[in-house]
Each structure stands twice: as structure tokens, then as C-alpha cells.
Amino acid sequence: MSTQDDKPAVSAISVQEMIDLVVALASLIAEENEMLRCGAPASLVGTVKLKVKLAGELERHIALMRAGGVFEGDADPELRARLVQRGAELQMAMQENASHLRAAMISTRRRVDAIMRAFREHEARPGRYDNSGRRTLTLASTMGAGRTV
């Protein structure tokens, strides 16, 4: 026999824990956004592991809270309002983060393309091979036409 009383109780503390997780994740994303905004490559930001951990905890907490009925009106209205507000702030930070990550990926792609273009141009230049089999290039510069590198 299943009744409403069989649901696990969701305390104000568990709602507060969820708010704390949302705030922690939003703060981490804001920190990452600032690093990306300053031009740090996405791969060097170093927040991915912690983001994944916090997101996993938040996901588990949401599942527990849904099972407890928080989203059906069982939570304290003040805590619920704070949770909704913090959730909206997290969503805005995540949208900004996605935009910064897209820009970082485009920038990285451009860097890789420039490196590959330079490499292909370097390989296409005429050159000679020395006694050890290494390729040497003949540079025609104003500093010394015909110098070998």
C-alpha cells in the first residue's frame, strides 16, 4: 500500500544543499568564463573535472529531490524561490560558458590551421640535404642571400 507518506522526506537542509551545489557550479563556470574571456585556451582552464563532479552531484540531488516531491510544492517557498533564482543564474552562466567555449574552439582551430599551413609551406620550400640526411633550407633574405639553415 503506497501513500503520500511513503515518500522520503525532503528537508530544508537538502534543498539548501542543492542551492549550494548550484551556487558552486555557477561560481566555477563564472571563473572559467573569466579565464576564457582573458584568452586562456579551453584545454588549459582545468575546470572540467570539477565541473563534471559538481554536475553529477547536482543531477543526483535533482533525482532525489524529485522523488521527494520538492517540485510538487513540498519545499519551503522561500528556499524554493532561492533555488529557482540560483538555477536561472546557473543557466545564464552556462549559456555564456557555451559561447566562450565555442569561441575558444574556433580560436584553437585557427591556430592549428595556421601551424599546419606554415608546416606545409616550410615543407614546400626548396631545400638540400646535408651529409647526415637532414634537410637544410636556403634562405633568400636581405641579411644574407643564399644562407643555409
Keywords:
mainly alpha, rod-shaped, 149 residues
Question: If you had to describe this structure to a student in words, what would you say it looks like?
Answer:
It is built from 3 helices and 3 strands. The chain is rod-shaped and about 80 Å long. Helices cover about 65% and strands about 5% of the residues. The chain has about 150 residues and is mainly α. It has one domain (about 5-149). The model has no long low-confidence stretch (mean pLDDT about 80). β1 (about 125-130) and β2 form a beta hairpin. A 3-stranded antiparallel β-sheet has the order 1-2-3, with no helix packed on it.
Structure described in brief:
The protein has 149 residues and is mainly alpha-helical. It has three helices and three strands, in the order αααβββ. The N and C termini lie far apart (86 Å).
**Biggest sheet: strand arrangement:** 1-2-3
Shape annotation: rod-shaped
Largest beta-sheet characterization: 3 strands, antiparallel
Radius of gyration: 28 Å
* Count of separate DSSP helical elements: 3
Q: Give the low-pLDDT segments.
A: none
The tally of beta strands, per DSSP, is 3
Task: Break the fold down into its secondary structure elements and pairings.
Blueprint: H1 12-37, H2 48-68, H3 77-124, E1 127-129, E2 135-139, E3 147-148
Antiparallel strand pairs: 1-2, 2-3
